[in-house]
From TrEMBL:
Name this protein carries in UniProt: GTPase HflX
Family per similarity comment: Belongs to the TRAFAC class OBG-HflX-like GTPase superfamily. HflX GTPase family.
Protein's cellular compartments: Cytoplasm
Function: GTPase that associates with the 50S ribosomal subunit and may have a role during protein synthesis or ribosome biogenesis.
InterPro entries recorded: EFG_III/V, G_HFLX_dom, GTP-bd, GTP-bd_M, GTPase_HflX, GTPase_HflX_N, GTPase_HflX_N_sf, P-loop_NTPase
Protein keywords: Cytoplasm, GTP-binding, Magnesium, Metal-binding, Nucleotide-binding
SUPFAM superfamilies per record: EF-G C-terminal domain-like, P-loop containing nucleoside triphosphate hydrolases
Assembly information from the UniProt record: Monomer. Associates with the 50S ribosomal subunit.
Domain Hflx-type G: 198-365
Length: 427
């Protein structure tokens, strides 16, 4: 049904420049997309137009140039750095006699290759079904000659009608399964709310370094690579930050210009972690020449998923790629941190991020010296689990004297849930 091409094919790339800023695409970014899809780009056909051609998207002369390029280099797929209509795809395929893939389908294919979790695979399939629903006719051109009349009427529904019905049924089935996943996510969020654990969500343009920063902060081993959409499936980790306490950190899929709307819609359940976070860590590749445009695109997607009102802390990442840039914290007129300059790859400036997080989350930290009886070994173990013990010694009677430094909410939680006598141990 999907006519999905296999990775490793030989491609001719097509890129046009338009005067309208909203229609412009980045050729270098497109080449990275192609590389991420595992496709070998043999040559690039470029051109300029004021508006897309209704039949070929490119002009008729440029379409013939594409056909000649395909024949010259022996390519078996043409990749457009633009979104095409079904009829435009069909016309170019007929002219070039090879597969034609537009930017939207290419991104969907990359997502299909990268999805690892059950939820991620369902979301990608749903996005593919939505996108392909308008292109089903391309798979059934042998039905175009069907006509009415005596002896020519087919029994029941046509193959195209059957295919559309099966597609709708599959979409309904996937939505129901995703609803079940969303219920599980809501239960997890309610548990974190009861435990009063703040959630931090990493967002940013694809390949900005979110997963590298995530691994640096959590000591996790999330896949991180210098390619677009290295992270697709969301990852959550519970971590202990100095002077902050225990928080939930979420790594999410990166955004991109003109991210297919079907993908945004399909991944809304996943991006709920972003909408309901206490703070967004907006990671920016500060060494990218188009960082301003990348920030604008991220803000656009955040508005689409209704997360634009969530407070943000800008992380200016990859300062090791620039000269004479030192790690620092930028503050607003009230002294509140608004930007942190660091390098996640080189682990430079991460301590400043911890400091900024403590200030932005407005965590009240308390310091106590506790005299814990020898029989309360479980309490001592609980305090060590919270990573809040700064000093420890014992007296002659075997009692444990601990200096602790932890958020007030963690202190109150211990008293309310397990150790009501905790305050009695304060020296």
């Amino acid at each position: 049904m999907f006519e999905r091409y296999q990775a490793g094919e030989q491609a001719v790339l097509v890129h046009l420049d338009f005067p309208d800023e909203s229609s412009k695409e980045d050729l270098n970014e497109f080449k990275m997309l192609v590389s991420s899809a595992g496709v070998d780009a043999l040559t690039v056909v470029t051109g300029k137009r004021n508006t897309p051609h209704p039949r070929f998207f490119v002009g008729s002369g440029k379409a013939e140039e594409i056909r000649d390029a395909v024949n010259l280099v022996g390519a078996n797929v043409v990749l457009f750095n633009h979104s095409l209509t079904p009829s435009q795809e069909k016309n170019i395929e007929a002219l070039c006699e090879c597969r034609v893939v537009d930017r939207t389908t290419l991104i969907l294919d990359i997502f299909a290759q990268r999805a690892r979790t059950h939820e991620g695979k369902l979301q990608v399939e749903l996005a593919q079904l939505r996108h392909m629903s308008s292109r089903l006719i391309r798979g059934w051109t042998h039905l175009e000659r069907q006509k009415g009349g005596i002896g020519l009427r087919g029994p029941g529904e046509t193959q195209l009608e059957t295919d559309r019905r099966l597609l709708r049924e599959r979409m309904v089935s996937i939505r129901k399964r995703l609803e079940k996943v969303e219920v599980q996510r809501q239960q997890g969020r309610r548990q974190r709310t009861r435990a009063e654990l703040p959630t931090l969500s990493l967002v940013g343009y694809t390949n900005a370094g979110k997963s590298t920063l995530f691994n640096t902060l959590t000591q996790a081993e999330v896949y991180a690579a210098d390619q677009l959409f290295a992270t697709l499936d969301p990852t959550l980790r519970k971590i202990d930050l100095a002077d902050v306490g225990r928080v939930i950190l979420a790594d999410t899929v990166g955004f991109i210009r003109h991210l297919p709307h079907d993908l945004v819609a399909a991944f809304k359940a996943t991006l709920t972690e972003t909408r309901e976070a206490e703070l967004l860590l907006h990671v920016v590749d500060i060494s990218d020449d188009r960082r301003s445009e990348n920030i604008e695109q991220v803000e656009y997607v955040l508005r689409e998923i209704e997360a634009h009102d969530v407070p943000q802390l800008i992380i200016c990442n990859k300062i090791d790629n620039l000269d004479d840039i030192e790690p620092r914290i930028d503050r607003d007129a009230d002294g509140m941190p608004i930007r942190v300059w660091l390098s996640a790859q080189a682990n430079i400036g991460t301590e400043l991020l911890f400091q900024a997080l403590a200030e932005r989350l407005d965590i009240q930290v308390i310091n106590h010296r506790l005299n814990i009886p020898a029989k309360e070994g479980k309490l001592r173990g609980e305090l060590y689990k919270l990573n809040c013990v700064t000093n420890e010694n014992y007296d002659d009677e075997g009692n444990c004297h601990l200096d602790v430094n932890l958020p007030s909410r963690e202190w109150e939680r211990l008293i309310a849930t397990k150790y009501s006598e905790l305050a009695d141990y304060i020296e």
